[in-house]
Structure formats: structure tokens, C-alpha cells
Amino acid sequence: MARVDPKAVLEGRIPGRPSIGLIAGLTVSSLCALAVLGMYAWFGRMDFVVALLLALLPIPLLVALVLALDRMEPEPPRAVALAFLWGAGVAVLGALVLNTAGMIYLTVPIFGETTGHFVSATVGAPLIEESLKGAVLFGLLWFRRTEIDGFADGLIYAAMVGLGFAMMENITYYMRALEEGGADRLTAVFVLRGVVAPLSHPLFTSMLGLGVAWAATHRHGRVAAPLLGLAAAMVLHGLWNGSTAFGGAGLLVVYALDFCLLVVLVLIVLVERRGTVQRIGRYLPLYESTGLVTPQDVQMLGRLSSRRAARRWAREVGGPAAARAMGDYQLAATELALLHKRAERGTADPAWLAHRRDALLGLMALARQAFLHAPLHGPAGPPWAGGNPSGFHRPGP
């Protein structure tokens, strides 16, 4: 029997090595990020070291918060890493070149020194930076459309691009603060950018993330939705940059706007997660005849807490391999429910849908075998079944 690669099945890709496109994207993004860091280090010297450490400090927490939104159906780590590195590398390097060129050859010659910098910040920078950040999202939509199952996926990728970009941009702000005002100025800027408003760039780009997600999961608006999302990202970015002209009141307004936007995005993710749970309850019972699921298994799949408990039980009775098998089973079941969502909306080729369905059912069956035929320890039935039928009932030790 051919060996099955669970990650390849879950990600909907051909088993084996990463694609050339992915390798090229990661390589180019990393080289661009290294070029930017090298330039910062050359001009910043010791200020660069301090700025780099401060820019990196909140990143693990922010990444964890973003990924926490996507626990039911996590995105492929390679694609998430590409999004982050694209924001930190290609987008930042491109923005440095184009923003500088725009000020030198366009805005300053036309509007003068002061007004030219303001126009560049409120109009030029949002147009350039959001386009560069959004390029990777358009690439995912074009090459990996089937990986984007809903708004949460689009938001995850957009947020990772924004976090990468913000991290690199913050280095310049911290270096400038040290040069202009020393430790006191640096503290103020760090509190503003690293503590109070660390999610500004992810929030801007999230508008495009919503548009890309709509295009990937709906038959209508496939062109208009991403373009509207990109325009919204540019407007939000421009409002943020332009708010400084209105002093504290302007900053307060944009902070309030961004906070409200953050709340709305979290609500969108929660509502979509509830929809996924409803689809699990609606479609998974169709496969009871295969023996892969029972009503009790469907209930287990519908809650994150019960999923965790199931993986914990699997680890207790079968070790790490059984826990991985349970995780594969749960993710495959979720992907199966989301596959029916695409079938509902007619956004995928019927032949692809059938092939994808069979692959996911095959992975669920393979994961189930780890419990039916392996020498496990513990009760014959899983705790969530409560003595009722379950696809994971097995012989005793």
C-alpha cells in the first residue's frame, strides 16, 4: 500500500517536495529581508541592534494571537511563513525604493518639501505599501485558491503579511527615535507602535484579506471584491498616516476606528467558525455508512474543547502517533465539511471535489486504523461516546 502523506492531503497538494514557486517565494522574500536588515545595520550601527530587539519583542505574542483565530482549520505553515516573509522582505524593500523615488521625483517637486512629505505619507505610501503587501494575497488567490476556505483564512494571511511589514518598519522608527531623542523618545515610540497599536498594518491589509477570501469562496464578485478590499486597505492606511496632522484628536479617532474594526473582524471569525460547526453537523452524518463517524463523533468534532480532549485521550492510550492520527482525523473531517461549502456555492470543479472528498475520507480511514488495529492501552471506547457507538471503538488491550 502506498504511503499517505497526511499533510499533503490536508493541504490539497501533491505529496513530496515543496513546489518551486514556494521555494522561490521564500528565497526571494528572505533575500529582500536580509538586504533591508543589512542596510539598516550599516546606517544604524548600535541603534540598529536596540531597534531590532524591540521590533522583535512583540512578534511571538502577536503571531500567536493571529494563529489562535485559525485553530479549527489551521493554514499550512509554509504558506503562513511565506506571507510573513513577503511582508518583511519584498514589500518592505519595494516600499523603501518606491516611496523614496516618489518623494524625490514626484511629490516634493510638485508640492514642496513639507506638503510633499505629507502627500507622500497619506497618498503615496498607502498606495504603494498596500499594493506590495497585497501581491502575495493575490498570488495565493491565483495559485492556491482552494487553500482559502473562508474569511478567517484570508485574515490570517493578511495579518501575517502586515506583521512582517510592521516589524521591519518599526526598526526604522525606533532607530530614528534613538537618534532624535534618546531613550525617552524611544520609549514613547515603542509604547505607541509596539504596545498600543501593534496591529495597524495587519488591520489595513485585512481588508484585502476579506476581499480575497470572498473571491475564493463565491461565484460572484471575484474581481470586484479583492479590488474593493485593496481600496479599503489604502483608505484606512491613508487615514492612519494623515491623522498626525490633526494632533491627539486625530490619533484618538483612528485608534477608535481601528479598535472597532478589530472587534468586527473577530466577530466575523467567530460567526464563520459557528458556520463551520453547523456544516460539520449537517454533512458529516452523510458518511455514517462508511463507519468513519457516528453522531457522537460529530459532536466531538464540533467543539474545540472536545477536540483537545480527544487528542489527549489518543495520546494517553496510544502515545504521540495516536495523537497525530486523531489530529489528522479531525482536520480531515473539518476540510470535508468545508468541501461541501464549496459544493454548495459551486466554486470548484466537480471532478476536483470528488477527488478531494475521496482523499479526505481516505485520510480519515487511515487515521482510524491507528486505533482499530494498534496495541493501545485503556478502555475500548473513547470517552466522548459515553458507551454509544463511535468510529473509534476498538478491541481492549
Automatic annotation (TrEMBL):
<feature type="transmembrane region" description="Helical">
    <location>
        <begin position="20"/>
        <end position="42"/>
    </location>
</feature>
<feature type="transmembrane region" description="Helical">
    <location>
        <begin position="81"/>
        <end position="106"/>
    </location>
</feature>
<keyword id="KW-0812">Transmembrane</keyword>
<protein>
    <submittedName>
        <fullName>Membrane protein-like protein</fullName>
    </submittedName>
</protein>
<dbReference type="Pfam" id="PF13367">
    <property type="entry name" value="PrsW-protease"/>
</dbReference>
<dbReference type="GO" id="GO:0008233">
    <property type="term" value="F:peptidase activity"/>
</dbReference>
<feature type="transmembrane region" description="Helical">
    <location>
        <begin position="48"/>
        <end position="69"/>
    </location>
</feature>
<feature type="transmembrane region" description="Helical">
    <location>
        <begin position="155"/>
        <end position="175"/>
    </location>
</feature>
<keyword id="KW-0472">Membrane</keyword>
<dbReference type="InterPro" id="IPR026898">
    <property type="entry name" value="PrsW"/>
</dbReference>
<feature type="transmembrane region" description="Helical">
    <location>
        <begin position="195"/>
        <end position="216"/>
    </location>
</feature>
<feature type="transmembrane region" description="Helical">
    <location>
        <begin position="118"/>
        <end position="143"/>
    </location>
</feature>
<keyword id="KW-1133">Transmembrane helix</keyword>
<feature type="transmembrane region" description="Helical">
    <location>
        <begin position="246"/>
        <end position="271"/>
    </location>
</feature>
<feature type="transmembrane region" description="Helical">
    <location>
        <begin position="223"/>
        <end position="240"/>
    </location>
</feature>
